[in-house]
Structures are given as C-alpha cells and as structure tokens.
Write a structure and sequence with these properties.
single chain, mainly alpha, about 65% helix
C-alpha cells in the first residue's frame, strides 16, 4: 500500500527521488537538443535555395548527418513543390511543436520541474 507521503506529497516525484534529481537535467538537455535540431533544420531550409551545395562534402556534413535520417523518408511522402524541397519546413514545425509541448513555458517537463 502507498504511504500518505507518496500519494499526497508536495510533488509527484516524492516516491522517485532519483527521477526528481534528474528531471531538471533532462529538461535542460532535451531543450538544448531540440533547439539545436531546430537550428539545423532552419539551416537546411536556407540551403534548399542553393541546390548546387553538396551537403555530403566538407563542413556541410554537420548539417547533413543529423537531419538526413528523418528527411529522406519524409521525401517519399512529400514531393518537392515547385522544385523546392519542403521537408525541412515540415520537420522544423514538428520539432518546434515537440519542443513547446515538452520544454516550453507550459510544457510537460517544465511543469514537472516546478
């Protein structure tokens, strides 16, 4: 049976002290990772205007490697519009939505940390 402290504790994580200590770090790392991924997709959007840039060479691989695994399958479903690849725009929207739902002002992890 659950003790009263677990059921009516000050936070929902009273029963899990390890999780309570790790949650702020998880919140921070997830927020930074999603922000970095959003920035990479934003750069990919700008680079769609320059089709002559080879993303598999040089420093451009830093944009290509983390984003291409999700963009390639999406391209099978969404065709280019007017010759422009719109899949980075779709993923930027999805990552922004996920970031807001998890670590935004009213996000799930934000509310759990408080």
């Amino acid at each position: 049976m659950l003790s009263p402290e677990i059921v009516a504790g000050p936070t929902a994580f009273t029963a899990f002290p390890v999780l309570a200590k790790a949650l702020p770090w998880l919140h921070l790392l997830l927020g930074l990772a999603l922000a970095a991924w959003s920035l990479l997709f934003l750069f990919r959007i700008v680079l769609t205007w320059y089709p002559q840039v080879n993303l598999q060479r040089g420093g451009w691989r830093l944009l290509h490697v983390p984003t291409e695994p999700v963009l390639a399958p999406t391209r099978r479903w969404v065709a280019p519009i007017g010759g422009v690849d719109v899949t980075p725009v779709i993923w930027l929207g999805l990552v922004s939505l996920l970031r807001e739902l998890l670590v935004g002002q009213q996000g799930l992890l934000t509310m759990a940390v408080r």
